[in-house]
Amino acid sequence: MLKYSFEKASRKPLYEELYEALKGDILSGRLQAGQKLPSKRQMAEDNDISITTVLNAYQQLITEGYISSSEKRGYFVEEIQQIEPVPESPHTFVEKYYKEEDWFADFESNNFLYNRFPFAMWKKVIREILSEYDLELVRRGNPFGLEELRTQIADFLYRSRGISVSPECVIIGAGVEYLYARLVNLFSDETIYAVETPGYRKIPDIYDAYDLQWQSVGMDAQGIRMHELFSSGANIVHVSPEHHYPLGTVMSVARRHQLLNWANSNEGRYIIEDDYDCEFRYQSKSIPALKSRDRAGRVIYVNTFSKTLSPAVRISYMVLPEQLLQRYIEHTHFFTNSTSSLEQYAVARFLEKGYFERHLNRIRKQYRQKGEQLIHLLQENKNIPIRSIRGGESGTHVTVSLDTNMSDRELKERSAEKGVHLSCLSDFCTRPEPRYDHVMVLNFSDMEEETQREAIRRLGDIF
Amino acid sequence: MLKYSFEKASRKPLYEELYEALKGDILSGRLQAGQKLPSKRQMAEDNDISITTVLNAYQQLITEGYISSSEKRGYFVEEIQQIEPVPESPHTFVEKYYKEEDWFADFESNNFLYNRFPFAMWKKVIREILSEYDLELVRRGNPFGLEELRTQIADFLYRSRGISVSPECVIIGAGVEYLYARLVNLFSDETIYAVETPGYRKIPDIYDAYDLQWQSVGMDAQGIRMHELFSSGANIVHVSPEHHYPLGTVMSVARRHQLLNWANSNEGRYIIEDDYDCEFRYQSKSIPALKSRDRAGRVIYVNTFSKTLSPAVRISYMVLPEQLLQRYIEHTHFFTNSTSSLEQYAVARFLEKGYFERHLNRIRKQYRQKGEQLIHLLQENKNIPIRSIRGGESGTHVTVSLDTNMSDRELKERSAEKGVHLSCLSDFCTRPEPRYDHVMVLNFSDMEEETQREAIRRLGDIF
């Protein structure tokens, strides 16, 4: 006889208590494999519970495979291998691995100007979208992005970057890393990617993450060095012609033409144009995108709203040449879109109503002022052995070349001791090049005037 | 003398017109490499414009590399290689490649029950979040996901799946495909992945997209076949113990123990538990997750809100064992989070306030009814040669085994002609297995009663 005592006060249904009790006895071996359980009626009588309760408990045990039922013969305990004893998972208590770092001044991160985010407008638009749409917000939708948004982006690219492109070629994704993951999928394993050195370190990091082959190609005053690109054997090159990070170089028209000729001369060659910074040119009109001169369909254009609107708006996009689009559809037809519909609608409206460009004009002015002020503070400071300063006419960083013997490592350590976080040009190099030593890279986008002033004063103290 | 005529009515600044004119002449070869341009003063006089206008135009041309200035000598046209003539990109006008398909009844897609989305509640929560938060919504934030949401998910997993896990091990991502892309990054190229056949086809598709090696492993009534798994040489296996798709199998406790023993017996082995459907079990209590018995840290748990809330809420998550978490941090520290902060806050509140579980209870009831009705309609129809029907006790699909000689292909074609879209079990097989022929897979989650009735009637007509 199997008799169990049930907790009267338990909030669990009675059948669950019986199920747990039997399960425990099976796992502990008190009930053994092949053993016959009492019939439902017998079990109900022995425990003073209803037959339905027993049936439900037995049913759950059958579903999970603890017992089986055999018609007319009854219920039997199944053979269950024990989990062999294993050392418990090493509970290396995972410390909070993400810490917001606590610097007095952080010139290393190029943070968005948070307090300039157009909250009122953004919230208004989100509220509008919420009241105008229902089903559209929750449907699976087009895997390549919301049609409204892709149309607005195509218009915007035409207006602001001289790029003429069908909305069908615009692919929306949750961040540039996400789009890169989709993109590298389109090319064979033998593909060699070229990255500029110095350059944006995240790009080779991404290639490494996918175990892809990449080559460093050096820079000169006009942009990426063509002879090095040719000899690298690369098929695909990543560039930012509008504003190289961190050198600030604008790729000359001559170099652009050479680069297009490089791509056009061989079937499998493509250029990835990372236009991350094109919205922030202050002292002249913006420079047309390389993509705007791409007749042969060799330029893949990539940009993001994370930098202009906010890093929390995870909406980036790429423009694929049509032959790649075809390949993309074949490779990733089964991927669902990775981006919030609500926010896609909101960004589309931001573009459509001109809010986006108004916002850009405002922050452009603010970034420009911040840059001018930073340069001014640097020039005024007599303790920093400045050789030259580059930047200010575009983007959100300046480079400061120093007349010092102090190693970059020491420079960064000493400034860190003062609460000032910064990087050096050498941090952006994927191969050692002494000519890039002794150059600080200062990102200034979200630093207030008072912080800048004090940070530069502290920097002066380290020499 | 260079004399240009300017459009008075143009809305462009005068300097831009001059810049465009000079640029055109340089690109066309009218102005040749090395040629000296008129001085600013001369150019201004010749064209009756101000010196500043000329200066601005020259400056833009210098920035873009069309001309250079040489101190005291003047301005000179740069040498610019022409873009060699290339065939225009084949303008295979990209037809709209995403079409919402127009079926009378679609049993193939497992669409979310759109019209049951708790709009009012969702909008209320989004509005609340909008009014309560500012900066938090636009900051870059934790790359692994919002802390509030990860804490709520950890609590939810404990309550509903018996999984005890630190919020630090919960990683948020924009969709399961995104998390998979991160996940496969953690393992070496030599890794062999095992997938169940039949099984969810997206998984081998994803492995293919990343050029990874995978092996099919067959199923029996208790779940994945252990001897095949052993002989496959796989290190990592993807399973859905709670409810196999599309067979509907619940992995027995005996098989679960064997599977855990398989993983525990070798350093590099892991189990990916895809718990995609665990919220929808109707006729018994839910079955504990495999992860809940994982003492050795060998189970990676994956789930999503896209299926329970809406596919447009692109919030999925995975729970990593601690040793993998460490590797994850090293590999992907530079990835930013891919998910909307606004929606992460909203889902966190949905969980915290119990709205999510209330919503689940509601749609669980609706799915159950839809399933019962579909089974009833199938049983009533005398024209469909049904051998057996499986499903209904869980999930949002049933399988219908047929007594017919009609090939699966013909079956699908004939039903498509009637406007009824469906798939067969053989579509889910990664190797041919005749025993899975002649079985329809019918997803029913978003089909209204009237549509079901008519669709089943039409299905009867094809035999």
Could you please describe the fold and organization of this structure?
Two copies of one chain form a homodimer. Chain A is an alpha/beta fold. Chain A has three domains: 14-77, Arc Repressor Mutant, subunit A (Orthogonal Bundle); 98-113 and 359-462, Aspartate Aminotransferase, domain 1 (Alpha-Beta Complex), CATH 3.90.1150; 117-358, Type I PLP-dependent aspartate aminotransferase-like (Major domain) (Aspartate Aminotransferase, domain 2). The first copy, chain A, contains 15 helices and 16 strands. An eight-stranded mixed sheet of chain A has the order 4-11-10-9-8-5-6-7. Chain A starts with 13 loop residues before the first helix and ends with a helix. Chains A and B meet through helix 3, helix 4, helix 5, helix 7 and helix 8 of A and helix 3, helix 4, helix 5, helix 7 and helix 8 of B.
Structural topology:
The structure is a homodimer of 463-residue chains.
Chain A (H helix, E strand, L loop, with lengths): L13 H15 L11 H8 L3 H14 L2 E4 L3 E4 L27 E2 L12 H14 L2 H4 L8 H15 L8 E4 L2 H9 L7 E6 L4 H8 L3 E8 L2 E2 L1 H7 L3 E4 L13 H12 L5 E5 L24 E6 L11 E4 L2 H11 L8 H12 L2 H26 L5 E6 L5 E6 L5 H10 L2 E2 L1 E2 L14 E5 L5 H12 L3
Parallel strand pairs in A: 3-14, 5-6, 5-8, 8-9, 9-10
Antiparallel strand pairs in A: 1-2, 4-11, 6-7, 10-11, 12-13, 13-16, 15-16
